[in-house]
Structures are given as structure tokens and as C-alpha cells.
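G., the chain you wanted modeled:
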Amino acid sequence: MTEPSFERDVSIGSFALDCGVTLDGVVQRVSIYGEPRADGANVVLVNHALTGSSRVTDWWGEIAGPGKLFDTHSLAVVGVNALGSCYGSTGPGSNGPGGTPYGADFPVIGVPDMVRAQRAALAALGIDRLAAVAGGSLGGMQALEWALQAPAQVDRAIVVGAYDWFSPMGIALNAVAREAIRVAVTPAAGIELARKIAMLTYKSEALFAERFARRFDRKGGDPTKNARDRFDVEGYLDYQGTLFSARMDPQAYLTITRAMDLFDTRERCLGDPHPAFTFVGISSDWLFLPEYVRAAAERFAAAGADSVYFDLVSNHGHDAFLADPEHLRALVAPRLDALYKGLAQPR
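Predicted structure as C-alpha cells:
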């Protein structure tokens, strides 16, 4: 695993949210792999999804790193933990004005808040231009928000498994997962159930049929004879829930899923100058439907942008942006040719 060359909390001071609340003493956890050029020409910001962190290679190590799509031999890959998360940046687990964690009192945030906080942190580090901003799922929402909020600062936006709004079905699924957390006997039980619900939205019927079929639990048992015994797919969900409860703060989960729900940029105008857009939809994704991703690409193209759509054919469902990296790399790499050629020229 590639380790960041720079990793620390960057203070951005008081920060006014779109909901009307001002947070004091806000920090952003920033990780950088490689050395940013002073002009930002080699800087790629990679935004994480719902449960990721600033440590990009921890969760997208097949996309970012030496010799990867975002090649840290020539690029400086930057990750920023999203506002409201639990991996270093200010969130529900941070201390509020009274000296105790915000918890359920943490205010409503949106994706625009996340991006403005990132912009402030990068500015504090002297990074004012991005050769590219990229991400999948919630990370794709942030990448698109960067392109709309700071179009003159971004050369390319790569949006994977996301589009310019969030669907009613997505909101409904998030609501059920949040309710699981709120009504559970313990926070751990709640976040485990929320994760199980979410895992169903991240996968596909074809993948489950291939991976689990109707087999009984690999650890033993026979559900035809004992009601407490499980099918293999049930054991998988239990395992994923247990792993998740050990690393995710329930209040952060509530906060960030609501930020996803609120995302809708369809009425906003494309700035000028504006970045080139690359949208990638996933054929088996029923959480972020590929036809919605394609429609977003077409909407920006109609507004005059260099905006293209690629279809990532995979049975991994929404998780294909993590689970099918070689296919994703093959689709996106040509859109980065000009970036790498420019960096190879003498300065």
C-alpha cells in the first residue's frame, strides 16, 4: 500500500454552512501522494465515497498509485476527508462549543459545504488549481460540485457512478438505513443493519447469484433444519455489518447520507471557463442508474462542455467503481492523455 508523503489536519477556522449554522475551529484531514507543482498542473483531487477517507490508496489503490490511472510518479494525488465524516475532518464526533462531541446536534451539511471546506483547506496549502478532480458515488457528486463551484480552478472532472442529482429511490433507501440506526437497541446494531441495507444497493442480482447462489453458510449449518442457521448470502451480510460497525461512526453516517439526499445541481449554470467532463455509468447499478448518468453527460454537452459518457459493463453493481478497476482504467485513461503529455513537456 502506498503511503502519503503528506498527511495532516488543516485548520480552516470558522466555517459558515448553507443551512445557516457556523462551525468553529473546522479542520480538514488532507493526504497527499507525490509532490504538487506550484502551478497545480499535476494535482489530482480524488474525493471519497460515503465511508472513505483522505487516504486514497487505502480504498482506491488500483486507481491511484505508482503506475496506476492516477500515476503518483508524475501526479500529486490529493485526498481530503469530507466534512461530516469520521476520519479526521470535523464531524459529529468532533467537540462542539460545549467541549463535548456534537453527536446528534451536528448541523445539516450538503455536498457544496464539503467542497467549499476542501477549497479552503487546499488554498491554505497553496493549491489553487486542479488538473483533475475525480470520484465515485458521493465522491463523484463532490467532483461535479467542484466543477460547478470552482470551474476556473478545475481542468477535468471525472464523475463515476454519480450524476447531477440524487433520485427519490436513493433518498428512500438512505432513509431506511438511517431509521435502522435510530431505532436499534445499540448504535453498533443500528450501523450493522444500515450497512446490510446499503450493501444490497451496492451489489446486483447477477453478482449475488454468481457469488452465493442458494448455498448454505460456508461456516456450516442447515436453514432447512434450524431457523437460526443461514444461507451464505446472509453470512456475507452479517460479516460486512460487523466490519463496518468497527470503523464507522453512526452519526457521521446519518450526516453524510443526508448530504447525498440534498444533492441537486440541475438548475445551476455551467461556468466559463469550465472543465472537461467524463461521466461513467455502471451497467448493473440500480442505486445510481446509468441512464441518469448518461443524461447528465448529455446535459453538460448541450451546455457547450466537452462532456462524454462511458458505460462500465460489470455485474458488480454500484461497487464496480471499486471492484472493477481495470475496466474503469481502460475507459478513463484516454481522457488523461493530454494531461500526461503536458507534464512530459519541459517546463
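The radius of gyration is 20 Å.

Shout if anything looks off.
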